[in-house]
Amino acid sequence: MSVDTATVAKIASLARLKVSEAELEAMVPELNGILAWVEQLGEVDVTGVEPMTAVIPNTLRLREDVINADPLTGGDRRDAVLANAPAAQHGFFGVPKVIE
Amino acid sequence: MPNSSNSITDLGVAAIRDGVAAGQFSAVEVAEAFNANVAAAQSALNAFIVATPEKAIEAAKAVDAARSAGQALGPMAGVPIGMKDLFATEGVQTTAASHMLEGFVPRYESTVSRKLWEAGAGMLGKLNLDQFAMGSSNESSYFGNVISPWQRPGSNAQLTPGGSSGGSSAAIAARLAPAATGTDTGGSIRQPAAYTGTVGIKPTYGRCSRWGVVAYASSLDQAGSMARDVTDCAIMLEAMAGFDPKDSTSLDLAVPAWTGSLSGDLRGKRVGIPREYRVDGMPAEVDAIWEQGIAWAKDAGAEVVEVSLPHTRYALAAYYIIAPAEASSNLARYDGVRYGLRDLPDGAGLQNMYAATRAAGFGDEVKRRILIGTYVLSAGFYDAYYTQAQKVRTLISQDFAKAFEQVDVLLTPTAPSAAFALGENVDDPLSMYLNDVFTVPASLAGLPAMSVPAGLDAQGLPLGLQIIGRPLDEQGVLNAGLAIEARAGFTAKPEKWW
């Protein structure tokens, strides 16, 4: 499988990456080179093989249902959470107008 | 240039800790000596993104005060270290070497760094790396390349310190730090260690908490220790590892006393040599050092057995589907809203702000991997690429499991060559990816693996040997590493030019 300029433009849009025409032109052969190389995986007989989901057997835990069990990841951290926001306002994340 | 062999900055973790405890020198003296080396090398090597000499001194003063008060000292007490700039450090800028996070000052401390500070270590600064840990040469950092302290004789061509933990490897080799943290997704601890004549270990996936570590590919990312010898790596890893309820993939297991159980006696052990690692075009010197390693393992009492890992040749391709897929998902969080860069063109709406922010914030290699990842996860291609890669990953993992029915550890070269010159591979992403050919398979299987310096090539550059162990058998890996280290007698260090 190979990609053309229109496909790369679509992927870039899905990935929310703004790319110029010139960048698109440069990316098409690069991505095709990588995709052609990973095609070799198609040779492998994977009949009956389950896809890997966890390399080391582990079970997902549930934390105790306690408020603020860990103060770092609990509540009352609004100002810390907003401290690195590029445009925090009135205790919220600021974004450009979404609804016309 | 003369380099005093008795200077404090030539000492490793154990020697510094024991010297501080015994009162041979104070922790503050140690911190000052390394702070001075960091400052003097910065313009030439660019190993650090931010130096934090005051943090190193502050931690050292606390250790000296604790010693004066007769209090028990931690296992890293008085040891200043470098912190890869992928670990969130409270109050200190954390960037993942990306413009996207320039100016990001975490309000919390990563679990791994917190454990190191609690063990008595101090922070010399945040170490440079490939942007978002994506790269094998440290040429993708927004804050500039890291330059290896190693040079070819008679040449001042700039060499790579490896990547992505290239700031870590360069700092340790250049005596800017006795040890540093690294992270390894496909070889990012082991390959830089091999390129700089240093030691690095990636533990079993889940041993070290990923909480507070900037995510690249979450099913592969694992923190580890880097230093100048095996014992120092063991001491530091013991301080870093351990269960953390804040990381859902953290293993709820006690940390073994790796350091106390170190033994280079390999009698009764079987060392496997995977025949598929004899790849076409491997330099004769790399092959020769591997043969030497086999002889050393035998000398240490091990029985050496050839084994087969038949799916090895597909590991890199599987990795370069799985890692970008996970990266494209993980890096979706950089949207210009919650933290990091925002690029808001005049009149732009939310979607255009996302796209402009991400275009301005991410470097080329990061964008390449996001695009590949988005493509292989997109409707219609998911099964052909991503599911197929995850199935191949299962086969690679099964190959290792079968090999470990016959042997205790595997011995291979760490990288297919010595360090290359900066710029040499930068225009060809594929040739760059091939650097990870020997390190990626163990990452895909979540296995503990380390690189130990084994010798120099004809150009005087370090070559490393890799030891891969069973899941959770860091001890077996460290012990085999110790046996190799004792026989390699690697004492070479870069001639100081910076």
Automatic annotation (TrEMBL), chain A:
InterPro entries: Asp/Glu-ADT_sf_sub_c (IPR036113), GatC (IPR003837). One of its GO terms (molecular function) is transferase activity. Signal peptide: none annotated. Keywords: ATP-binding, Ligase, Nucleotide-binding, Protein biosynthesis, Transferase. GO terms for biological process: glutaminyl-tRNAGln biosynthesis via transamidation; regulation of translational fidelity; translation. It catalyses: L-glutamyl-tRNA(Gln) + L-glutamine + ATP + H2O = L-glutaminyl-tRNA(Gln) + L-glutamate + ADP + phosphate + H(+); L-aspartyl-tRNA(Asn) + L-glutamine + ATP + H2O = L-asparaginyl-tRNA(Asn) + L-glutamate + ADP + phosphate + 2 H(+). Pfam families: GatC (PF02686). Its EC number is 6.3.5.-. HAMAP family: GatC (MF_00122). NCBIfam families: gatC. Belongs to the GatC family. Allows the formation of correctly charged Asn-tRNA(Asn) or Gln-tRNA(Gln) through the transamidation of misacylated Asp-tRNA(Asn) or Glu-tRNA(Gln) in organisms which lack either or both of asparaginyl-tRNA or glutaminyl-tRNA synthetases. The reaction takes place in the presence of glutamine and ATP through an activated phospho-Asp-tRNA(Asn) or phospho-Glu-tRNA(Gln). Heterotrimer of A, B and C subunits. This is Aspartyl/glutamyl-tRNA(Asn/Gln) amidotransferase subunit C. It comes from Novosphingobium barchaimii LL02. The lineage of its organism: Bacteria, Pseudomonadati, Pseudomonadota, Alphaproteobacteria, Sphingomonadales.
